[in-house]
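Researcher: Here's the sequence for the chain we discussed earlier.
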Amino acid sequence: MNFLIAGLGNIGDEYAKTRHNIGFRVLDALAKASNIVFEDKRYGFVADLRVKNQVLTLLKPSTYMNLSGNAVRYWMQKKNIPTERLLVVVDDLSLPFGTIRIKPSGSEAGHNGLKSITQQICTQQYARLRFGIGNDFARGGQVDYVLSEFGPDELLKMDERLEKACEAVKSFALQGINLTMNQYNGK
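Model: Thanks. This is the structure I predict for it:
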């Protein structure tokens, strides 16, 4: 079976290490661990990852965060992937750094990338892997915070947290959403 794993972020060197780009970082870690390389294709950077008998199309949209839905819709149609085999990897301000929360559907919780996807595929019924980025910012400082880089303490834990997120992505394809939620949520 084919799956689409969309990691959300913003293109450009100035955004590469920011909190908002954790979706790209998770997919980069998956690609690096599997020795695969992304190709610059329509609406994004794409790589196919084989996990046992599943094919995971990894997508890092090149449309900027608030237009991510265009890329997701295009690649779902191109690869003929139904919404139940879509997983979106996204940053989450409401979770402590590195905490993983997987859900089969839900609201966008103010996240512009998720809003765009919901608008383009006309449903909220798609899986999300939310990666906690914390919320240590002053009132009114949300935009600056999500576009800031991780701190030294967070970077020390980053590789281990990315590895856990990568395991969860593979579990989603191999075991399904329910077992993956039970195994990885809050970990």
